[in-house]
Write a structure and sequence with these properties.
Elements lengths: L1 E3 L6 E21 L3 H7 L21 E23 L4 E21 L10 E23 L2 E12 L2 E2 L16 E2 L2 E14 L2 E13 L2 E5 L6 E5 L2 E14 L4 E14 L3 E4 L13 E5 L11 E12 L5 E11 L2 E2 L49 E2 L2 E12 L2 E7 L5
Antiparallel strand pairs: 1-2, 2-3, 3-4, 4-5, 5-6, 6-9, 7-8, 9-10, 10-13, 11-12, 13-14, 14-17, 15-16, 17-18, 18-21, 19-20, 21-22
Amino acid sequence: LRLVSNGENKVDWTVGAYYTDQDSDLGQNSYLVGYIPYLNAYPYGCAPPDFGWYCIGPYTTEQDFLFRRNQDYKETAIYGEFTINFTEDVHLTLGGRYFDNEIDVDALVDVPIYAVFAPPGVASESDSDSDFLVKANLAWDVTDASMLYATFSQGYRHGGSNAVPTTGKYGENPDYFVFAADTIDNYEVGYKGTVGRLNYAVDVYYADWKDPQLNTSTSNWGFFGVINGESARTQGFEVELSGNFTDALSYSFGYTYADAELTDDVYQPAGNFYGTPGRPVFLDRVAADGDRLPGTAEHVFNLTLRHDTELANGMEMSTVLSGYYQSDVLNSIGDDNCQTVNDPAGVCRDSPSEFRPFFPAGTPNPFYAPTSIWSRNYAEIDSFQIWNLSTTLSKDAWSASVFVKNVFN
């Protein structure tokens, strides 16, 4: 619901209210077709007591994986902003948004084919949050064709749940089940306008990120998960240019520089692999202060050229060439530097535990590496460019196009 002031006033304003109730149900089923005869026939080496549990049968289902997650998210908010028009050229906008939200989650992970010795893992959690976000913008029309502006704004992304069981054979540390909201404070100064055939916009920005939501995998079984880091920041600048070389040939160009990095170490529960029941669950450092943020390219360019031609009989032809380039990005937090010798299977043995797992208490761990941030998910994705070309022939309400995507493969 939104109410907006009418006309041009000394003070223009907008007020409103917002409500959402979102239910999402997620599920996955996997089957090993024809596996039951194999399980019931193959003895697995059933010598008790070490392997006797493999002999439990008969097996009755081919389903090897079942996952369910039911999530209910509710949010209520009120918001408003007003713009003070000091003069025709100077404007100050102040705004705010108060919100209150709640999330309820139930999840189940099961391996039905082995249900006889691996009960389902279940989890249930509720969380709520409320906050007040603000924004402020000062704009000055330097000339009739240019504007200088400065903006402060706050962003918010609500928390959620991971597809992670916290009980049963596949149980993870309960800390993985939900993740918290993250917030950002954004500062931006820019200048934009028009000179002759040229339209331009340039800005510099700094964004301070609190409790950033970061992708990871759980320590016991490698489920996909989201965890909260401590802090991160992004800073850089942007340039946009567009206009016409001639009446028939136009262009647009953009460039973004983004320096994005963590500003604190990131830890997650190391899982019960590193300790037997009754021993502590260690925190594992999985990313370091100063590491690049994954998924963010430092340099991004885009370019478009468009040529328009009028043909006979009222027909028109438009040809567009567009290009995109981005520098390399990282796929994951962490790195690919294993500090201890890999085992024959190629698994890094770096451990956050000072003592040897599953050994008598106090046994030193030869793989103890508290500063390791090695991740099996880590990969560097090379820079790339993509060029597309299209031509459209049109007349009245009809058009026909030919196009090539990724011209240079």
